[in-house]
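SEVERITY: medium
COMPONENT: batch folding queue
REPORTER: lab tech (J.R.)

DESCRIPTION
The queue accepted two submissions in a row. Attaching both inputs and their returned C-alpha cells so the on-call engineer can compare them side by side.

ATTACHMENT 1
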Amino acid sequence: MCSPEHFAVEYAINPWMDVTAPVDAELAVKQWDRLRETLVGLGHEVHLLAPEPGLPDMVYAANGAFVVDGTAYGARFKHQQRAAEAAVHRTFYDSPDWRFIAPNETNEGEGDFAYLPEAHGGLILAGYGFRTELPAHAEAQEALGRPVVSLRLVDPRFYHLDVALASIDDGNIVYYPGAFSAATQKVLAQLFPDAIVADDDDALAFGLNLVSDGANVVLNSEATRLAGRLKAAGYTPVPVELAELKKGGGSVKCCIAELRH
C-alpha cells in the first residue's frame, strides 16, 4: 500500500475524476489509515511504499504490478500522468524475495488482472478495453506460466477489471455483468456458475473493488446490498469508508497490491 499523502485529482483520466471537485487530503489519509488498520486487524502484513511528490495516484498501489508465486509482472501505464509510478514499484520488487519481469506491453497490474489458484487448476482473469492492451495478456501468460482468460470491458465507468470483478476465494468470483461484453458475460457464466452477481447500485458504489482473504471481504461501505449477498453466501463483509479516494476512481482494491509468494 501507499499513503495518499500527495493524493489529489489534478487531471481526468477516467470518468470518475472531476478536477473541479475538492479533495480533502487530510480525510483521504485518515480513511486510508483505517483501511490499513483493518487489514492488519484481520491478521495481514502490510508493506508500505513511500509516496512520491508529483504522483498523486500512487495510492492506487494495485496498478503497479501483478504477482503470482513470487514472480512480479511489472506495469506499463497507458497514461503519461502515471507512467513514473512503474519504476517506484519495480524498485520494491528488486530484492531476493521476488522475480521481476519487466513488461513490453501496456498493462496496469492488478487493475486488470485477477488470479484464482484453484479455479480450473489456476487461472488468470484479464481485462482489456480501456487501459491494459490485449497483447499484455499473452505476455502475462508467458511471464507467469498460468492460463489467461481475456475479458472485454465495454463500459468506460468500469475502466479496470478490478472495479467490475473480484476474486472472493481461491476459486470463485463476484462481478457486475453490465461492465462486460455479451460474449464475455457468457464466458464468465460458464467458468463461474456459482459466482455472486452484483447489481448496478453495488457496482456504481465501487463495491466490486474489494479484497478478500477467502473468509473476510473488505469492501466499500456504500455497497450495502453486496455486503448482504456476501454474508448470505457465508463470507464476512468488512465495510470501510473511502469516499475521498473514490474521487480518483478507486476504492479498496485499488489501494492494495496483493503479494503472492
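ATTACHMENT 2
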Amino acid sequence: MTSTFVRSNPGLLPASRSAVAKAWPAAAAIVLTIFLWWLATTVLSPEYSLLRQTAPQRVLPAIVDLYQRGVLVSDAALSLWRLVIGLAIAMVIGVPMGLLIGLNTRIERAATPVVQFLRMISPLSWTPIAIALFGIGNQPVYFLVAAAAVWPILLNTVSGVHAIDRGFLDVARSFHATRAEQLRVVIIPAVRDHVRTGLRLGLGTAWIVLVPAEMLGVRSGLGYQILNARDQLAYNQVVAIILVIGVLGSAVDFVASRLPGRTFNNRADG
C-alpha cells in the first residue's frame, strides 16, 4: 500500500530526499564540532585541567540546572529586552539621519568625514562616558547597544537612497507630489530592504557588544551571569551561557532575516 501511495504521489519522495540533502551537511558539521569539543576537553586535556569542566557532558547538565533555577530564562529575556531597546534607539536615529544625508548632497559631503570617524570608534570605548552620563544601570547598556547598531543602519539607509531609480522621483514630481508625499510613497518603500539589511548587520554587532556591556554594572543578563559563574569558578556554567548566547544570537539573526521588506519596484509591479 505504501508503494502505491508513493507511485500516486511521485513528488513526495524527491522532496524528502531534497530536504535530507540540504540538512545533512549542517547536521554533520554540528556532530563533528561536538565530537571535537568532547575530544579536546575530555581525551586530550590533562586530568586536572579546567578544560575538563567545559566538556559537553558537564556543560549540558549546567544548562539544565540554570534553566531549572530560573536564571536562564529571566536573564536571557532581560538581555533580549536591552537589545530591542538599543536597536529601537539606533533605528530612530539612524534611519532619519540616513534619509537626510542620502537626499542632500551638501549634507552628505559635510557629514561623511564625521560619520566615518565615529563609526570606526569601538562602541565599548564609550563605556566610561556612558557611565559618567547615565550612571549604573540599564541606560549605559542601551547607549552602547545603540552606538554599535546605529552606523550599519545609517549607512545602509544612505545606500538605499542612492539606489533609488531617479525616474520614480521624476514621475512623483511630475504629479506635483510634495516632499512628504515623495518620502512616503517613493523613498521609504524603496529603502526598506536596505534598512532591513542595516538592521540585521547592526543587530549582529549590537549582540556582540551587549554581553560585555552587561558586565559593567548591571546585576542581570547573560553577560552578568558569565561574570557570576567565573567568580564561582563554575566554568561549565560559563560555557553553558556562551552556548545560550550563540543560540539566541543565531535565532535573533534568523528572525531579522525574515522581516518583511519590499522594494519600490516590487510594490509597483504589484
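NOTES FROM REPORTER
The CA atoms of residues 39 and 122 lie 36 Å apart.
No errors were logged for either attachment.
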